[in-house]
Structure formats: structure tokens, C-alpha cells
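User: Predict the structure for this protein chain, please.
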Amino acid sequence: MYELKARRFQLIEAKVTNTQNNSQWSFNQQPQLQSITGGQRVFVQAIRSYSSNAVGGSPFTQGNVMPTAADIQNTTLTLSVLGNLRIRNLPLAELNAIWSDTAAYVPFTLSPFLLCNIWGIDWTQSYITTVLGAHAANVSFLFGIYYAYSTDPQEDYSGIPYVDPNA
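Assistant: Here is the predicted structure, written as C-alpha cells:
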């Protein structure tokens, strides 16, 4: 199992407001995750998703419920990177690390979903798709975004600091 050494973390939300099948739900603008401030590049390193088994409610939208294990299994993520839909229909089950569903075994992964050199994500053009409608209206899908700025000191997998040959 790979242990992520994240420099920064941000929790973001995609709100589902009805239970229709095959619906797309966009993210709000995420200024702290945009590569727009003074030429600063924001590299997204890993993404996690969270179900009702991990988080009891949304810190952003009071009263919204969290997705169930079935909601996670029936939802995908699409990311717009530098104007292109580069990551399409990634199952949220790939991003979820915590399951404790007594009804049935649910697949999960212990390692975070790692991204390589992904910067320039346009969160307003990125979205989740509920293949089967969510279990209720007003569901908050939460995502943990692990990221670093291009100016942050980088380390390779061994923990030895990376020295930029161009610096």
C-alpha cells in the first residue's frame, strides 16, 4: 500500500438535488484549487470520496445527507483538465477507502487514487454522474483533494527531497 505524503488538502462538495438516473452534477468554483493565481500551478496528487459510513454530514450544506454505499457504487467522476475531459466516468468506488456496510460486501481500495502531473482542473466543467439516482434528494458527495503548489518542495517515493535541476 502506498502512503501519500500530502502537502495540502481541501474538501469539496458536489450537490445532488434529485433522484433521477443518469444525471450530471457540477462542482462549484474552487479558487484554492485553480492554477490561476500569479502563474501558480496547483498539482492535484490524489482524490478520495466519502460515504455516510465515513462522514455524518456535509460541512458545507446543512441538512444534506451523505451518499450511501449504493450511491457511491452507482456514481462516476469526470474531470476537465486543461479544457479536455481527461478523466471520464471514474467509478467513485475507486476513490472510497472506508466501507462498513453490513448488508453486503462492497469493494473498496485502501490506497488513494493517485494522479500524475494533473494541473489545470476546471472544477466548474468537472462533474459527477449518478448512473442510478441517489437514495434521496439533497445528497452531498464530498471529495478530499490532496494537492501541492508547483513551488512546494517535492519528494519522491523514498522520502528523499527532490531537487529541481532547473532551479
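The mean pLDDT is 82.
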